[in-house]
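Sample 1 of the test manifest.
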Amino acid sequence: MTNCPTLIVTVGLPARGKTYISKKLTRYLNWIGVPTREFNVGQYRRECVKIYKSFEFFRPDNEEGLKIRRQCASAALNDVRQYLTEEGGQVAVFDATNTTRERRETIIQFAEQNGFKVFFVESVCEDPDVIQENIVVSLGSPDYTNCNTEEAVEDFMKRIKCYENSYETLDEVLDRDLSYIKIMDVGQRYLVNRVLDHIQSRIVYYLMNIHITPRSIYLCRHGESELNVNGRIGGDSGLTPRGKEFGKKLSQFILEQGISDLKVWTSQMKRTIQTAEALNVPYEQWKVLNEIDAGVCEEMMYEEIQDHYPLEFALRDQDKYRYRYPKGESYEDLVQRLEPVIMELERQENVLVVCHQAVMRCLLAYFLDKTAEELPYLKCPLHTVLKLTPVAYGCKVESISLNVDAVDTHRERPEKRVPVPVPSAQ
Amino acid sequence: MMRGCSSRTKIAQNQDRAVCMTNCPTLIVTVGLPARGKTYISKKLTRYLNWIGVPTREFNVGQYRRECVKIYKSFEFFRPDNEEGLKIRRQCASAALNDVRQYLTEEGGQVAVFDATNTTRERRETIIQFAEQNGFKVFFVESVCEDPDVIQENIVQVKLGSPDYTNCNTEEAVEDFMKRIKCYENSYETLDEVLDRDLSYIKIMDVGQRYLVNRVLDHIQSRIVYYLMNIHITPRSIYLCRHGESELNVNGRIGGDSGLTPRGKEFGKKLSQFILEQGISDLKVWTSQMKRTIQTAEALNVPYEQWKVLNEIDAGVCEEMMYEEIQDHYPLEFALRDQDKYRYRYPKGESYEDLVQRLEPVIMELERQENVLVVCHQAVMRCLLAYFLDKTAEELPYLKCPLHTVLKLTPVAYGCKVESISLNVDAVDTHRERPENVDVSRMSEEALLTVPAHQ
């Protein structure tokens, strides 16, 4: 029933955002549950040629350089094959310039031999400001550790020049049988050709929604709730006095941040709505931001769950990500229903999301590229705001406690391997 | 309090500021020669947007022209040198735009689809100015196609049935229509990457083989692009049915996760036979993650995919209750539900409106797929059916979806042909009509008048 694996192939001159796109796409696909890995040929080259000397390595007439680069591409493709056929990978992102039709043809043949579908992602950009910005990111590469900025920029520009003459962009006629998306001018325009299946359709939708405009995303939970202080999970209770205090402090904090045009989102549960009310700004309620449904365990204390459902409790500790409360949800379910939130967060700019512990863990895991194993144990304490700002290939996180006491609702994974209690023999 | 109100956007209750959270309305404008699928796309897009809760209406200029020029004579009306014809067509376009304005500014419309050829830059400029004056965002949808087979198919499927050609034979009609297309070809100015770089648009080429997307401005345009990129016109059929009769069904109880009764299992077998007889190539089978749909699909002996989002509507505190018990324990809730069955949300449960939200990815994937059998549940099936048959939110919760009956949906022309096939296995009736009295002060008997018989 498994679809054949997909090989995503980037295309484009240096400093066009290929690695940015590769890493982001990989993060997104893994988060929604599609095992994906990126293979950056530059990395392979750095492992092969220990010390980077200069752009001369990339000159089209540098036989030695060409040989090494071909070998590196081959090594990377080999690892791609292993990942997709033996390690359970579903998608591999082959991140390199791939600027000639010849190189792309080699990859297509490789994919055909192995039964992989190929989808090209080309980034075309001639905006000098954007390219300059990108180069700044590239300067953080190990290639330029020992250069000053001016030298590095100069060398990098010459590196780009090495590719320009032989660059064959994906062509509407010559490449009409290939599946690809051509992203032009950082997403102003897209050309999409022959989308073959569901995953390619999702990839196209995702790539068309992301942007690189600087902004920040603020994540926090509702203020402390009545059920919180009683050690109970779920439910739909209101805020305690301390929770209301948090609302006020949050309002101050938001003002101090001086954010232009901040969107505020809440769930449809009382505690997040009450928290947002204190902000005195318009906000949007999303049902899909509601806390994880604990089914039969709703409003119970952990002690009660242990009493009434010891088996369930143990099973949950064994696999907290996939475990589904009877008549409830799992973290895995939560990720599914939060996907439209992530998609809209990608479209938006400055957003504050007032949500819940499990929900916040899922969203955080997306931005910080956490695994399914780590996700259910991420620390998201009450009365603390996480400010996420995209930077380079990842996300900067600032944790700001608003200094209002609250109960701790974080339950760590128990130390020893939890044995599943055997029901006593009758 | 948010009783029964589950809309996604809610304005903060602040009396001092009437801050408008509603985005400004969107005017979708089709572009393309005749027989390029503009009306097909317009109608389908309108149906989709309405189903997901965005009030949308289409305005077909050809309709306006037919109301103006009662009898269509020939393609000569469309000749570019026909002054009289041009005058009438301009008036019709204006009349349509006037109605667009009224719909978007006074009737609560969110999206209007302006369906006409709009093949010249001049005409499009007029529309852009109109939109600017009224504060509407404009998004163009152009369909470009030179495949003669596709064009021929379009003409046969939809044009020949048009009121314009009621009194012609096929040959005459096709010939006239081809000449009609010719009238537009010389002045056709396709959306240009350079000249139109500041416009927001999607250019669909060769029935979806290739797309050019320019300047998508907001969420709704992004959703429209995603939808248009997922639909196709390959002939296929979608089969909808419920699980076989379940234990809770026979006891008149709603929700839960029970298994099939012997009759329910019989249905599974009959369904398997039916599927074989249909001789469908490459049928995908989808179920929910509840026992009763899985057990039904198991009888088919083919691979199937389980979707959690296909699970039945969550009746919250009323799960596994009989209607009589709901009337006993929650008479207020019961009445409120009868008052607005689409938006009503069971306490700790869901509304039909919520269901539509969670079923959207199913619809999107159904659009991508070809032959599919969806084994689901009463409320879920009503939602899916409403999408295909363009039913309103008021009609949706009362659509008849009896057990042991398969609905075969086949796209045809601008809509969907429905065939209802009962597999002749008896089952309890689970359909509860809206009672006469929905007042909260009603008597028990009045509330229970329409409850179907059960054990």
